[in-house]
């Protein structure tokens, strides 16, 4: 009896001393790195984005825009986004600008060229559709890593598998999500969102990865909504990092006068 | 210690279950390759071309003895050409339209009448780092109001607004030189219009209004004749805006010197409508409060000298606006505004009114509410906007539903409903204009 107990104790000490702390301590590191490589590569970035929004009947809608992003600093915190629409035709030349704040709601503006109107828009729920696609605002700009409790549930040759549970469950539509984070690159390759019954409701899949300026980058990804049956495939082209975007681009001046040089 | 051990053990067992799921590596991840930076310049035309073709029809909900039953029945083609050169961008936007509701199709580019309506024809360039210049025909907008304008004295097209054209047509173009200076945090816009650009105001041609002079409605047979100040460089306008942000709060100060944009006076001898001189001074602020965006704007309208005692010229006014907008539910945005228009020198106004004339109240209050709901993956948009004036006891309800059948094909329907207790109030006079409309638009 005592031997067995001792054996268990030794075993648990062994786990506690190596495996368990490694899991508990490292999960935040993994999440931080995944967040960095997903949303904060370089000091700034530019990409052309093509979105195919496909409904459950297979009908397709297309969005095309150029996205400019600049980080405030090296802390993986505040960012600025400038989104210039090319397609569909009725939103061509419209601009959507976001200043992502860490301490309060984001600031958002919409520029309507036909009226030369710079409209300030109220921050919306981060978990509503971005431009009618199956991606949410938060999927495009990143979800705060401190909004969830993260647990490393598995580690294998290829992936860290992290289960994340929201600290404020009322603020989101899922009850948890699980991410498969590629070990070598820290890119999340798959993310599945579950409801409180454990049913899969949404899933993100990285479809293609390419290296741009030394940064492995997801250049094709899909988001599926398992309840509605629709999905959106997002393809990135002309990706560039450390473009040297000036801060002033993210201002009323450049809403009214698009910085063409950076949008081509 | 033991607990942690057991947790780890449980995790290990739990993870065995998950391992059953096969996760495939995305293309390129196992064998990382560098992105080919192909130049995807798919230049077909030497310039950028876009636009739309639409058909839009509308009918009055009641008859107006002074107008046709149809409120709108037009075919419209908009061509938008843009050419970006090294130091210069050229933009040309013109509408070509035919509307049998109107009888006169001769082209008047100022009034927006006829087959052609040039909306933009301008060049933009930056002669210096801190300066942007836009020269030519352009659409201009500033200020914080939602469909209420205090310090934005650029021309409006109230006819288009009331009969159900797209919102972009509320703004009529200006022929102007805009210079925008950027001094770090502080910015200054100076806009010079060498010749006065009036509103495309309600003159009876398309929409009947209440004529206080004759004490009755006035329509297409007898439209307003105006004495428009139209001398180049003589009857000019100047508008300026100084603005800067303090954190998330955007503030601005405004100045305008020109003329009342819609008739605000009458020539005693001819009875023609006039545009008295006007100067305005104002400020605004806009920023996040709670979960939404709050706005405040004030303006002082200084009318022509001697206006207080002249019944034929509109008085000085103080205008005030406060608004708030926020998302109230998923894909549902709501906003409210309160607007005040206060006559200054009210005693003089009363004293100078002819016997028997309609007396306006000193204060005109307006409350507005807007609701916008997006449905069906944002392809269906439902919108409601209501103006209600408790002082005039009248209002104006705008309804619109638009659905995108495909990316380039949109169908919409809506209504413009005017209501009021008396025939001469601002919205009440348009009761016979209440209309519904529908449109089909193909964009390219």
Structural write-up:
The complex is a heterodimer of chains A (264) and B (444). With 264 residues, chain A is of the alpha+beta class. Chain A has a single domain (2-263), classed as outer membrane lipoprotein receptor (LolB), chain A (Clam), CATH 2.50.20.10. In chain A, 19% of the residues lie in helices and 43% in strands. Chain A has helices at residues 2-17, 19-39, 137-141, 252-256, 260-263; strands spanning 44-54, 60-71, 79-87, 95-100, 107-112, 117-121, 148-155, 159-166, 176-182, 188-194, 200-212, 215-225, 231-241. In chain A, strand 7 (148-155) and strand 8 form a beta hairpin. In chain A, helix 1 (2-17) runs parallel beside helix 2 (19-39). The longest helix of chain A has 21 residues, at 19-39. The radius of gyration of chain B is 27 Å and the shape is globular. Chain B is mostly beta strands and 444 residues long. Chain B has three helices and 23 strands. Chain B is 7% helix and 49% strand. At the A-B interface, helix 1, helix 2, strand 6, strand 7 and strand 11 of A face helix 1, strand 1, strand 16 and strand 17 of B.
